Amino acid sequence: MMNWLQELPNWQPYGDPQYFIYLLVALIPVVVALLFGKRIKWYEGLVSLAFIVLMFAGSHWQQFIALIGYIIWQAVMVFGYAKYRQKADNKWVFYGAVFLDVLPLAIVKITPAVTMGQNSLLGFLGISYLMFRSVGMLMEMRDGVLKEFTFGQFLRFMLFMPTLSSGPIDRFRRFTEDYETVPDRDKYLGMIEKAVHYLFLGFFYKFILAYIFGTLLLPGLEHEALVAGGLINWPTIGVMYAYGFDLFFDFAGYSLFAVTISYLMGIETPMNFDKPFMAKNLKDFWNRWHMSLSFWFRDFIFMRLVMVFMRHKVFKNRNVTSGVVYVLNMTIMGFWHGVTWYYISYGIFHGLALVINDWWLRYKRRHKKQIPHNKFTEGFAIFLTFNIVMVSFLLFSGFLDQLWFHNH
Amino acid sequence: MDVKTEVLGMINDLFLEDVSDMMDEDLFDAGVLDSMGTVELVLEIEAKFNIKVPVSEMGRDDWNTANKIIEGIKELQNA
Fold it and tell me: In what residue span(s) does the Carrier domain sit (chain B) (predicted)?
């Protein structure tokens, strides 16, 4: 039955230069129409559908079935809760809806950990990002700020092709407003200009810098580090920096592509990175690194947990509350990356580091006069933050799992 | 007391900052508000004005200046 899908070629999003040519050519009618103040919804839908099908075609065809199943599951949750929320607002129903919405992703994340690396059949590329979008909708419905929406709007938001596989994570109300209002010509021309700039910056990041760090430098350094062995050695420090830069340029490059294609489609998808290695402290870093994810965690996990703890006066001291929630928030983020010791400890590492960072910021505020502040201290703060982040990325990379426990 | 005086008083009590001369300045950029502070302020506002502030509305574009917070409260009071 699914033979046709297996026969088709598989096109990974933004995978190679040809992909861009096909996608840009397909988008020409969309761009021309937008320049004349029109949105050809049916054509956009068709192009999106075609590229989504190709993303999961060939050997990945099972993921396409998983995607359809997951969309149906989420539609039932979102529309079921929307219908319920019109009449009542019991918090347990809300928690239940969120739990069921997250459940398939939890199964996908836990399966490899309990089956020695087997992947769940429920999984597909981008499942997390669909979960973030629909849980965001549930939260906003609970708050009463999101009330009415159509099935078409839901599908368009969930399956927005440029950001389907890895974000940036948009919000329903922001996205839908962009979609329903066509930008005027001046604004749209400005968006095209930015899109062109982002496209070339993305090429530079992903196909040159990430290639240098990830493909040319990293394997050699890893090999040397494994040969040297022990708990830590010099080549491992090299692995740390090469991996860190590869991670940034690869993901920032991808994010720039996703934003580029969104802009061409007249949608101002939020940016994901803002010079993260220039951060002055760790809090600042999380406002600059994978921003759409960290803001999602801030708005839907951090702030809501703080709200619950403070409302029920769980802790007397506000700093204890924020500290506990920092650690919880980042540990959950660690689990989301995957159920392995290194992802989870990466999360805990950042949680604890944020607690220390927060303590330092409070101390600095209280001792404004005694603590010097100048270009040199600022430079040192940036240097220190950068290196702490790099250490956390070494943990995140899983390389220590190979070095210490020989899990190749 | 009017909403403005109440809000300025709350910000003063919670964050030890007088923002009366920067009513339209972004309080996050100015370092007065952060996620933690936002929740504290919301809880105070809810108790004082007997309204329910949706957390989703506390996004950094909607409630980021003193004037916008005051406007937001007035809107919720009339809702």
Answer: 1-77
In this structure, are A323 and A334 located in the same domain? yes
- Token reading at B39: 């929740």
The amino acid at A393: F
Average pLDDT over residues A36-51: 94
What is the pLDDT of chain A when averaged over all its residues? 94
| pLDDT score at B59 | 67
- Domain containing A334 equals 274-408
Q: Are residues A215 and A169 in the same domain?
A: no
Within 8 A of B56 by CB-CB distance, chain A residues are: 139-140, 143, 145-146, 299
pLDDT in tens, B13-43: 888 888 888 999 998 888 888 888 889 999 9
Sign of the Cα torsion A83, A88, A94, A96 reads negative
A175 & A279 share domain: no
- Residues A113, A27 share a domain: yes
Would you call the peptide bond into A112 cis, given omega within 30 degrees of 0 as the criterion? no
Give the nearest chain B residue to A139 (CA atoms). B56
Burial of A283 (0-12, 13-18, 19+ CB in 10 A): middle
Q: Determine the average pLDDT of the residues in B55-79.
A: 83
Q: Are A384 and A349 in contact (CB under 8 A)?
A: no
Contact A318 B40 (CB under 8 A): yes
The CATH code of the domain that includes B17 is 1.10.1200.10
Chain B residue whose CA is closest to A297: B35
Tokens of A131: 């979960």
User: Which range of residues forms the domain containing residue B21?
Assistant: 3-78
Instruction: Please confirm, yes or no, whether A337 is among the known catalytic residues.
Output: yes
Set A197, A223, A337, A367: catalytic member: A337
